[in-house]
Write a structure and sequence with these properties.
Length: 372
């Protein structure tokens, strides 16, 4: 990373830190279960029976609770993961395309994905999930030996990260069997402990948790969450393209990414990315219900693939910025207004993304940003 881009990444991290500090976190819904599990564990009690959901992030929140005694420890650790995602997004774009501008464009797309860093303010886990998705992608690009361990940890944060295994499977088969044991141990210990306490591999909240009474200590079998139907797969499309459903990113990015994967045969990890997207589609489409956040792995892969077009046709980012307004607004109306004082402050990441584009455009126009 050259000095100018290093300064940019540091400035974005500091700006987003200030942005998070301007918010007022309010624990809601599933956040109480993640925080409750973390605080119980911090006091020496592993308690899957009282708290439903995937609790991988709660393990990371324990040291935060020890240090701060804050009942928002799950939110604090999510903020940390979100800030760490910023340089990670830059390096992924830069290394994937072997182009510093690729790093800037992928960082812009991270900023234009508001759902994770908005809903973490209510205790949701998608900001941490996004970090592990990015780390798995980075490890796969760089052929790091720890990638499968990251994949296992990401899987216990949220299982949707597991669909990314095609990205590193080929390299794993070739030479990295030694890392299989710790990966299996992470998943096995987590699922085994949950099964021992609850009688289920996962104390799942999917069925009957959004209507009627839900008993966290007596959840339905996990398989009842899977009833493949046509409407389930149609819902995946709606969760990618319909802004009012509080989608992850601009639909234009999804379209550009899809065309890049279909038409650009020289794209790195092309077949592996397509396989992971198909797995995400099948997994989420088979559920009895789904939200756009379940599609975060494929969203990030589409975003990464779309950068190939943004690098060739910079004017496309203007359309992406305009379309992104309609991504931010529903999320502000449903989530963001509970945490930030007004919409003008809430839109700060959008301003940052626009500023990055102007910076890159001006330097390129004046030939001051030669790629190396």
């Amino acid at each position: 990373m050259d000095s100018s881009h290093k300064k940019i990444v540091v400035l974005v991290v500091l700006a987003m830190l200030g942005y998070f500090l301007l918010a007022t976190p309010v624990m809601m819904d599933d956040g109480f279960h993640y925080e409750g599990f973390a605080e119980s564990l911090a006091k020496g009690k592993l308690d899957f029976k009282s708290f439903y959901g995937f609790q991988g992030l709660s393990f990371f929140a324990v040291p935060i609770f020890w240090l701060t005694k804050s009942h928002n420890s799950i939110i604090i650790v999510s903020m940390i993961f979100s800030l760490l995602s910023i340089p990670l997004a830059y390096f992924i774009g830069k290394d994937f395309y072997k182009d510093k501008k690729g790093g800037l464009y992928f960082l812009m797309l991270f900023l234009l994905t508001p759902y994770p860093y908005t809903t973490m303010m209510r205790g949701f886990q998608e900001a941490a999930l996004l970090f592990f998705i990015l780390l798995i992608i980075y490890g796969s690009i760089k052929k790091k030996i720890w990638t499968q361990v990251t994949w296992a940890v990401g899987g216990v944060v949220k299982p949707f990260a597991l669909v990314l295994f095609p990205l590193f499977l080929k390299d794993f088969w070739n030479k990295k069997w030694v890392w299989l044991l710790p990966s299996l141990l992470i998943g096995g210990l987590y699922l085994g402990a949950s099964y021992y306490q609850t009688g289920h591999l996962v104390n799942n909240a999917a069925i009957n948790s959004y209507q009627g009474n839900f008993d966290a200590g007596n959840p339905p079998p996990l398989l009842k969450s899977f009833v493949p139907e046509t409407r389930g797969f149609l819902r995946v499309g709606a969760n990618l393209f319909l802004h009012f459903r509080k989608i992850m990113i601009s639909p234009l990015i999804i379209v550009l990414g899809a065309f890049s994967l279909l038409l650009n045969r020289s794209l790195r990890l092309r077949k592996e990315m397509i396989a992971a997207i198909i797995l995400n589609f099948v997994l989420v489409g088979s559920l009895t219900f789904s939200f756009p956040k379940y599609l975060l792995p494929m969203t990030i892969l589409f975003a990464l693939a779309s950068v190939s077009y943004l690098l060739k046709h910079r004017w496309l980012i203007i359309l992406v910025l305009v379309d992104s307004l309609f991504v931010f607004l529903p999320i502000w109306s449903y989530f963001g207004r509970s945490f930030w004082p007004n919409i003008y402050i809430y839109m700060a990441p959008f301003y940052l993304a626009a500023a990055l584009f102007v910076y890159e455009y001006l330097l390129t126009k004046h030939n001051l940003n030669p790629n190396s």
